[in-house]
Design a protein that fits this description.
Keywords: Kinase, Transferase. By secondary structure, this protein is mainly alpha-helical. The chain has a single domain (15-128), classed as 3-Layer(aba) Sandwich (UDP-N-acetylmuramoyl-L-alanine:D-glutamate ligase), CATH 3.40.1190.20. 44% of the residues lie in helices and 9% in strands. It has helices at residues 15-22, 29-41, 81-93, 98-113, 121-128, and strands at residues 47-50, 56-59, 65-68. Strands 1-2-3 form a three-stranded antiparallel sheet, with helices on both faces. α3 runs antiparallel to α4 and α4 crosses α5 (121-128). The longest helix has 16 residues, at 98-113. It is globular, with a radius of gyration of 14 Å. It starts with 14 loop residues before the first helix and ends with a helix.
């Protein structure tokens, strides 16, 4: 029996939260990907993991692993960064292009971190060029 709703498109913990779920300390994207696979085995369709300065990892519903680096900028406020990442991912995944969705989610999260408020489109577009 799945602990996740199978009609849910996405589960998005950060590396700390994922480590807490499994009682492990996650130090690399590859290690995090192994635990993302465990979540998929428990019923999650897509697992998007933010790992701060280590980038982001997506294990998609087809079992394909996608990795993305981070954008550079000055950290101002991390409040809302995860929500911004989810919004960007969902917007980018509409056409099923998970590489693009991961990059857009990463840029949206970064744009929020580098802003005093939520991400704005001009900064998102600039950060997309870094990815």
């Amino acid at each position: 029996m799945s602990i996740f709703r199978t009609d849910s498109i996405l589960l998005k913990p950060n590396d700390r939260e994922l480590g807490e779920i499994f009682g492990a300390e996650l130090t690399t994207p590859e290690q995090a990907a192994g635990y993302a696979e465990k979540l998929r085995g428990m019923g999650a369709r897509n697992v998007l993991l933010s790992m701060a300065e280590k980038g982001a990892v997506l294990l998609d519903e087809n079992g394909v692993l996608h990795k993305c680096g981070v954008c550079s900028g000055t950290v101002r406020n991390s409040v809302g960064a995860g929500d911004s990442m989810v919004a960007g991912f969902v917007a980018g995944a509409v056409n099923g292009d998970y590489d693009y969705a991961l990059k857009l989610g990463t840029a949206c999260g970064g744009a929020t971190v580098f802003s005093d408020g939520l991400a704005k489109r001009p900064l998102i577009d600039e950060l997309m060029k870094q990815l």
